[in-house]
Amino acid sequence: MKVALVGLPQSGKTSLFTALTGTEPGREKGGMRLGTVKVPDARVDRLSLMYRPKKTTHAVIEIVEAHTPHKDERKASKSALDAGFLNLVKPMDAFLLVVRAFDEEGLNDPRADLDTLLSEMILTDLMLVETRLERDDLEHKKGKPGMPGEERDALNRCLKILDNSQRIYEDANLAARPELRTYAFLTARPILAMVNVGEDDIPKPTAEVLARFRLPVAGIPTFACCAKSEGEIQAMPEADRKDFREMLGVREPVLDIMVRELYLSLGLVSFLTTGEDECRAWTIRRGTPAARAAGAVHADIEKGFIRAEVIAYDDFIALGSEAAAKKAGKYRLEGREYVVQDGDIVHFRFNV
Question: From CA 84, how far away is CA 107, in angstroms rounded?
Fold first, then answer.
């Protein structure tokens, strides 16, 4: 999974990148700063303590900080985000918009910054739709067949939504249309927002802080954190982090909040595999059948799928072992259409 941090200069997205990825300096690639983070999952840690495997593997998220234009460049282009930048972030699965809400004078307006970023993303998609429809009209005038009717219908629906300053993602059925996949519309994917506050706002209730800035925007999951403080905490020895968070009034690490909101927005769950070699979490879409979930482990397992042996994580922990789960009737044999649930411990049987 790839998530792009998007924000105007001085919004604190670099500080947030550091807070999320820890001391990792990040690697540069094509104008983007790249880093990876482990998805916190206490279930994986607990299973690892029980099995003592050779390897413990958490799910990972790739965090991308794409460089936005500086102030002078934005004046020249009259745009908050230039075309080159927007092309860089097109392959992302989701966007986290970072807006600044920290200064002593209280002059920052995170709601206005968020509106600016959303407007630029909507405008980019709108221009793409209009260009494609105009080209199709021209092809028809030349006697060429043009695009399929289903594709044109989907684009016309997008045009109506975007013209109304809304995001394609707000129409879930439209956003999922296969005809639109090649367009990589920015607003067809989940967008979250992080309000980067000062230390004084850390202990305050999130709803109170957001309301002061006229947030959240409808349909945009929004949370607040102090990226600078989060980065300082991340740089500490792990044993000291909890006490420092309590001292500052930090209720929950920003990584935990981001992961939870991303999984909800993208409709993701994790199933688990265990053994002496490895304990691991695998990320899949909610509603994925067992055979397709097996493909997350290896394509050959999906092709040769026979059955899935499943124990719910909570049942396994309560009973203490696979043997006890079998005795209690909690060890189930499921077929290829079984929908894998969050926290299922799964062993796939297959024939190559």
Answer: 30
